[in-house]
Amino acid sequence: MLKPFLKAFNSTDKNKYALTDIRFRATDGKILEVDNGFSKLDSKEVAAWRKRFNARLCSNKLLDRSGVWRYREFLPWARPFDTVVTMPEGNTPIFNMPRSAAYCGMKALLCKHQGLNPTGSFKDNGMTAAVTQAQKLGAKMVACASTGNTSASMAAYAARAGIKSVVFIPDGQIAYGKLSQSLDYGAITIQINGDFDKAMSIVQEVCERGNIYLLNSINPFRIEGQKTIMVEMLHQLDWAAPDWVIVPGGNLGNSGSFGKAFDEMIQLGFIKKLPRIAVVQASGANPLYKSFIDKNTVLTPVQAHTRATAIKIGNPVSFDKALFAVKLTNGIVEQVSETEIALAKSRIGVDGVGCEPASATTVAGCKKLIERGTIKPENTVVCILTGNLLKDPDYTVEFHQDYLFAEADRSVTLTGTGKINTGGFANKPVKLEADADVILEYLLKNRS
Ligand SMILES: *Cc1c(COP(=O)(O)O)cnc(C)c1O
After folding, report:
1. Closest Cα to atom 1 of ligand 1
2. Range of the domain at 366
3. CATH number for the domain that contains residue 348
4. Tens digit of pLDDT for each residue in 399-411?
5. For residues 336 and 119, what is the distance between their CA atoms, to the nearest angstrom?
6. pTM listed for this prediction
7. Which DSSP string do the residues of 198-245 spell out, in sequence order?
8. CA of 311 to the centre of ligand 1 (A)
9. Mean pLDDT over residues 71-89, rounded?
10. Average pLDDT over residues 322-333
């Protein structure tokens, strides 16, 4: 039987901390990770695991139906799995994206849409694991700082588990789709005057002093759940690793979790070839990109600016984990502008898929990396779309009205600076008389 424990990530602190030890940093201040104690499987065991994963696709048990817990062999710390809190999350499709591919200059492009989770973002993959742990620990209250999706997900899973939740959000900087969720799911919602990085520092102090369980991605059990996004992706691809996986980088928990997934799968002998990870940041919130370019392994925080609010983070908690993921997979870090994000998002839209702005950094980054020659047009690429189109409808409507600003202020009417050139991709609504002749004439002119 494996005996999982917590340990410091990338640290000289070699202590083993118990899973029940409520702490988020080692004695030297480094963040923690779960050591699942995996050792190499023989080929028969690998085949047995894969067979089991396939069999669970036909099961009606909630635990098997979850795209996280279907792969519970990768989550031994949660044994015996009888108290798992699941919606059930995951099971997100991989779409073939012909128009986005053409936009990038690729033969084909795949997008795995984590925005089709129960609360509309990949945060559910992590939250099912971390709220399960919160319940095991007997937590009475859970909290997080959030740019919106973490709070929506936490509020939902905490409600399912019957645990009170508190969210800290930056005032006026979160998309309404997300705010509406945490309100509706019953979370105490505290708007603070300050940005995400400020909210993050406050929530850590409040949790520590108030004996409240913290559910940001500094929580190592979130990372455990998010790992399975890569396991599910490989399962969907019949265990053939793509050449590249492209992921947006904000607080960098997701990038870090993908690195851990691949690290463990290699340790287990589960796959032979690793995909290369490309982390893409908004150029206005790019601390990982900067350090990557400067070959610097120390984080220098930045003041974050981007309309892609889910990645508007200047002081990412999982910086070390993301750097590890990039190094492990011979990966890369790229940055994209506000215009590049907006245009790529519109191409993901015309594939009939759509996503929120942060997710579009992936397709924008793919196009850039093709142009640089880093990614080859014939490569297999999976972009991870992290959030649902409906999370941030304002952004999308502003784009299509040809009225999207890089810096926007909607306090009275929408004003802003740095209007984004939609490059002919805006699909403006048309105002016509309620008259069939007029409408038909318009449609005849716009058939193709
Ligand atoms: C949270 C989030 C991100 C950023 O993920 P990190 O793990 O913080 O890097 C990107 N896109 C969406 C939609 C998100 O909700």
Report:
1. 310
2. 94-120+222-395
3. 3.40.50.1100
4. 999 989 888 776 6
5. 27
6. 0.95
7. HHHHHHHHHHHHHT-EE-STTSHHHHHHHHHHHHHHHHHTTT---SEE
8. 6
9. 97
10. 98
